[in-house]
């Protein structure tokens, strides 16, 4: 009878323990209590890009021809393996919270007396015990705080990856737009030179032109054709770089984009650096790491304090030989208390010193990272503003003058007042100015995207049309 009772009790305890453990498939993945996403951060995971309400995409690997640069960036964020990996790392970090804040599993023990102990009230046959350990006060809170900091750092890293992918997509688009513009400009100059060749050839036939002039224009045509072929051959490589960011096959087609948005930063480098100190996700992730180590130092200190274990033992006792004995066959129940003795102090002290050293390491890493970011902002700001200066120089000063010079040289050549070599030099100069202007536009846009990444958010900008034209000699 006692053994049957033991079996029933064991089943009841086991059922209670099993019933208290939920399947991991019964709970939503990730913690949504608001603590694992830092305040002020965007709470939109990559799933925000999953709904294509605007109908920009056709299938899973094709962008429609009318897609804008913003659509390309959105597509890249939606399909990027790097973004997905960073997001999953954050989700994995959030799942640490319910693990570290839970109490240790209760311990169930069952013992059978191989040689029954005869007592006054009957023989003791078996014993069933259950115990629960409680860590020192505040230990679980500190462990959870450390896990929260890890999750927040993972979210900041996720934000940094999104910014990096955005910068890569914008940079690849700028390079592709520059290549297409350079191809178009070079092709237009090819047409212009071919018209020159026809004029020179006609003049040569009637004896008004010279053979060296004809040879010179043919050489120029050959050089320009070589440049055009090189530009066309480069496009698959540029498209492959863009497709790598978009997570598409390298040979997936990319339509020709006429131009990228033209914006100019509206704040100086010092202002951007001040913003970056508060919003750069890499620095914010290191801030979370520092606080994580503070929490782990508290955990290490409390690891050196005793844990309390509370237990309950139930002993199964048979009937006494003399049934008339009071309490015959009664099963005794004993409440137990125990503590571990943290005797070996060196390991606990070493744990505290380790956490302190790691906190100092993270603080030094943050200072180093901050210095690098501030220097990178200065460099990117210079590259952006210098490229903008070059764009305005070429578009508003040099190119108009070169076009005017070309018109004058062409008119003079037709009137036999200007040599053909002067006309070729003027045409070549205009070509180089046009290409340099497109290169400066691409550099300006790429530097602005770099500033967005370094600052950690969209920096204040203004349209290029808001900037008054300036001459070179100002």
Any descriptors?
disordered N terminus; rod-shaped; alpha+beta; Outer membrane efflux proteins (OEP); 474 residues; 4-stranded antiparallel sheet; disordered C terminus; two-stranded antiparallel ribbon
How would you characterize this protein structure?
The chain is an alpha+beta fold. It has 2 domains: 2-16 and 70-102 and 135-305 and 342-466, Outer membrane efflux proteins (OEP) (Up-down Bundle), CATH 1.20.1600.10; 106-134 and 306-341. 61% of the residues lie in helices and 10% in strands. It has 10 helices and 6 strands; from the N terminus they run ααααββααβααββααβ. The strands form 2 sheets. A 4-stranded antiparallel β-sheet has the order 1-2-4-5, with helices on one face. A hairpin with a 2-residue loop joins β1 (107-119) and β2 (122-134). The longest helix is centred in the last third of the chain and has 70 residues, at 345-414. The radius of gyration is 38 Å and the shape is rod-shaped.
Describe the structure concisely for a colleague:
It contains ten helices and six strands, in the order ααααββααβααββααβ.
Layout of helices and strands:
Layout: H1 2-19, H2 69-79, H3 81-94, H4 97-100, E1 107-119, E2 122-134, H5 139-205, H6 211-246, E3 263-265, H7 269-279, H8 281-303, E4 308-317, E5 333-339, H9 345-414, H10 420-455, E6 461-463
Residue fraction in strands: 5-15%
The beta-strand count equals 6
Rounded radius of gyration (Å): 38 Å
Q: If strands are numbered along the chain, what order do they take across the biggest sheet?
A: 1-2-4-5
CATH topology of the largest domain: Outer membrane efflux proteins (OEP)
For the largest beta-sheet, the strand count, sense and barrel status come to:
4 strands, antiparallel
Judged by helices, strands and strand pairing, the structural class is alpha+beta
Q: Based on the structure, what is the oligomeric state of the protein chains?
A: single chain
Distance between the termini: 107 Å
Helix content: 55-70%
Morphology:
rod-shaped
The residue-averaged pLDDT reads 83
Unreliable sequence segments:
1-33, 46-59, 468-474
CATH homologous superfamily assignment of the largest domain: Outer membrane efflux proteins (OEP)
Helix count from the secondary structure assignment = 10
Secondary-structure element series: HHHHEEHHEHHEEHHE
Any guess at the CATH architecture of the largest domain? Up-down Bundle
What is the CATH first-level class name of the largest domain?
Mainly Alpha
